[in-house]
Amino acid sequence: MDLKDQSLDQQLIDSLKNRKFKIASRSSQLALSQTYEVIDLLVGVKELGLTKENFEVVPISNAPGDQNLKDPLYVMGGVGVFTKIVEVELLNKNGDIAVHSLKDLPTIIDERLFIGAVPPLKPRGDVVIFNEKHKGKELKDLPEGSVIGTSSLRRITNLKNRYPHLKYENIRGNLNTRLTKLENGQYDAIILAEAGVFRLGWIEKVGQFLKQEDFLYAPGQGALGVQCRADDKEAIALLSYINQKEPRIRVDAERQFLNKLEGGCKLPIAVHSEIIDQTLRLTGQVWSLEADKTIREVIEGHISDQDLGLKLSEKMKQAGAGEILEKIRSQIDKKENEE
């Protein structure tokens, strides 16, 4: 780097120091904890020399996914039921940066917006929290007809196949609300993403960690997507400092897989990714709603191959995944029309 480049870098850093960034976030405890996590990462970049005074959190309420707490997510119309309202704040310049759970962010975003960073990943699997009366048990030990709370078709179909003696019912609301419903006896157990449980400091409440090799996770689960406007060069430069190469490669491949499979976070589509010695291993799986049919495929390639998600989706379609997902869409549409 020559002196001119160094001078430009210093000019940029000085500009960042003199700016107060507004960070838009949903107002739930979990969403805010993710936002403060990102702020801590940015403040921790020593060469920038920023402080918490450089950031202002802008809580956003009334996302459709937060307002409608009755319907399962998979029958709610539209995309981005948790993220769209936050993106609007960015586009209206009421916020400069937005922090999302990446699994909630649609794979196709507004061209005026940009995912500037994927920070270090948190645990990516699913966990089970049991009602106190089942303390010490696992799912296989629960009595027939025990009620399991989850709003995820991915979780329902996989669990239904492995534990057909259990009953699966929709549960909505933020994690605190779900925990209260569990403690009040509405459910015998609830299934949650480990990352959210980790961020809220609830690990001691977990009764069972579901093995990731058996229970693949949702594309982008355990990852944050930090977004800004595509024309905000300062915000893009700022976020580049906390963008992590390997997590970004993994989640980009997962999201490409989801997109090319023409799925969404509402359908029973699961993935697992890992990087070993510059090789990305990507596993995908889909289930039928009846949980009597599943397709699971694996693909490997060098981390420089930006089409691995596409290649896995094509492999899955050739094995029949497209037909399974099309049937599910028809079943969901029928259910929506009936209601």
Automatic annotation (TrEMBL):
InterPro entries linked to this entry: HemC, Porphobilin_deaminase_N, Porphobilinogen_deaminase_C, Porphobilinogen_deaminase_C_sf
Record-linked SUPFAM superfamilies: Periplasmic binding protein-like II (SSF53850), Porphobilinogen deaminase (hydroxymethylbilane synthase), C-terminal domain (SSF54782)
Keyword Ribosomal protein belongs to the record: no
Cofactor: dipyrromethane
Domain of life of the native organism: Eukaryota
UniProt cross-references to Pfam families, sorted A to Z: Porphobil_deam, Porphobil_deamC
Residues in Porphobilinogen deaminase N-terminal domain copies: 22-235
GO CC entries: cytoplasm
Keyword Glycoprotein: no
Protein keywords: Porphyrin biosynthesis, Transferase
Single GO MF annotation: hydroxymethylbilane synthase activity
Enzyme class per UniProt: transferase
Annotated Porphobilinogen deaminase C-terminal domain residues: 250-318
Enzyme Commission number: 2.5.1.61
GO biological process: one example: heme biosynthetic process
Protein family membership: Belongs to the HMBS family.
Protein name: hydroxymethylbilane synthase
